[in-house]
From TrEMBL:
Source organism: Lapidilactobacillus mulanensis
Domain of life: Bacteria
Domain UspA: 14-153
Protein name, per record: Universal stress protein
InterPro entries: Rossmann-like_a/b/a_fold, UspA
């Protein structure tokens, strides 16, 4: 067994980052996106930005309507491209958009991560009672993703937690 006294700290370097942003929840995505862009810029490494069209959020009539699906796909693709443009404006040199459909946690862990092969997955997390966001999928992704996962809390959630600790 390696002895702690003989251990030497070594630098850690990421080579590819995947950031999962939620089109329905800018609050939880913003801070995580800032973090992912900062790390990608500092290390000068590729950043993939992914958004998932949550088909489970559509009612049966919406899911059967090609026009509704096409409109929703176009909205998500537009927003995904805006995130990518923001990352490039910030100074991230290699930015790739990745769009998926289905259950976000399953789609990201089973499809997006294997295709992009990041060594770091960054996700925002803010859950509100009765409202599912990417953050509600954070535990699943942290448990099953084959790479390191960083869960970034929103400013609002950090403020609420600090107020609870002060009580």
């Amino acid at each position: 067994m390696e002895d702690l006294a003989d251990y030497h700290v070594s630098t850690m370097h990421y080579s590819r980052i995947l950031i999962a942003v939620d089109d329905d929840d800018f609050i939880s995505s913003r801070r995580a996106f800032d973090y992912a862009c900062t790390v990608a810029k500092i290390y000068n490494i590729p950043l993939a930005v992914t958004m998932i069209l949550e088909t489970g959020d559509l009612n049966i009539f919406q899911s059967l309507s090609p026009d509704v699906l096409a409109k929703r796909r176009a909205e998500i693709a537009r927003d995904l491209n805006i995130y990518c443009d923001k990352a490039r404006e910030f100074g991230v040199m290699d930015v790739q958009p990745l769009l998926g459909e289905g259950n976000p946690s399953h789609e990201i862990v089973e499809e997006i991560v294997p295709s992009f092969r990041p060594d770091l997955l960054v996700i925002g997390s803010e859950t509100k009672p009765g409202h599912r966001t990417i953050g509600t999928h954070a535990a699943y992704m942290a448990r099953y993703a084959p790479c390191s996962v960083i869960i970034v809390r929103s400013d609002a959630q950090i403020s609420r937690m600090l107020k609870d600790f002060e009580k």
